[in-house]
Amino acid sequence: MTTDQSPLRPRKPPVAFEQGLTRHWLGGQALPTHIANAVNLLFPAGERFFIRSVARYADRVEHPALRAQVKAFFGQEGHHAKAHERFFDLLRGQGYEIDRFLRAYERIAYDGIERLCSPELRLSATAALEHYTAMLAEEALQPGTLDLAHPTARALLLWHAAEEIEHKAVAFDVLKAVNPSYRLRLRGFALATATLAMFWLAALLVLLVQELPRRGERGARETSTEQLPPVRRRFIVRGVFLRGAREYVRRDFHPSQNDNLHLARAYLAEIGVL
Asked: Which pLDDT value is given to residue 53?
């Protein structure tokens, strides 16, 4: 297991939800906003899946430090799920219909796919998804990424990102303790990649379709891919999926090899909760 990080601890979200949220909260543009909104829609149910998958094997963890990290992982992920559900309320208040998508997503992903997978495969998929979320978190914490975001969304995403980087190795280390099979790791990675891409795209389409009646008012250009800065457009495909695959399929891969913990610590220190 990794030894380069301070003990984890759950923190309440430093987010003023009462400040509300602008409709196109990322630079005033629909497409960048909904790319972020779409992955946000996956978080609460996904975080609870992570907790279930790791909790199934909590009693198999023998190392005291990893046991402590597992306990804190549960607390952090639980806070993330609840905070993003409050974010959902802001989207509903703006008139977005998200509940039908959320019900379908949970029915397919968790009532369906999760039940068809073995506990070890679910844990393996969780470790892979935690790798993806850590990569998204690294990008979120880079200078400039969220400078144009509304303060409510910015605070939520940066807090979440910092804690994702903090606990990025927990599920992976539990998987290694339970079953270090390289084949199992790759099977979980394939499942994680396919489901993340599928549900992220589905959520994005659900949100973008709801912008269509407003195109006459705001102009079709607002949903154009040209409005997303080139580096950020490339990051979604090349950064998350291609870099993620290139790193994760290495036999000697470990999440601690990505040197991004300093980004989390710097942000947490900045807001006084390190």
From this structure: 98
Give the C-alpha separation, 206 to 209, whole Å: 6
Count of CB atoms situated within 10 Å of the CB of 65: 14
Provide the token pair at 256: 């601690």
The span from the CA of 84 to the CA of 234, in Å, is: 26
Q: Which residues of 188-221 are buried (b: 16+ CB within 10 A; e: fewer)?
A: bbebbbebbeebbebbbebbbebbeeeeeeeeee
Q: Which of 171, 160, 161, 136 is nearest to 263 (CA)?
A: 161
Reply yes or no on whether the pLDDT at 82 is more than 50.
Answer: yes
What's the rounded Cα separation, in Å, for the pair 95 and 85? 16
Closest to 164 in 3D by CA, of 39, 260, 83, 233: 260
Separation between Cα atoms, residue 189 and residue 131, nearest integer Å = 9
Work out the mean pLDDT of the chain and round it to a whole number.
91
Closest to 159 (Cα-Cα) out of 15, 7, 2: 15
110: alpha, beta or left, given left = phi > 0 and alpha = psi -120 to 50?
alpha
CA angle 148, 153, 154 (to 5 degrees): 55
The token pair at 80 is 């993330």
Residue 259 phi, psi (nearest 5): -85, 80
- Pick from 244, 226, 227: nearest CA to 235: 244
Rounded Cα gap, residues 45 and 127, in angstroms: 16
Look at residue 192 in the predicted model and tell me its pLDDT: 97
- Cα atoms in the Cβ-side hemisphere of radius 13 Å centred on 113: 19
CA distance between the termini of the chain: 22
Unique residue bearing structure tokens 């470790």: 127
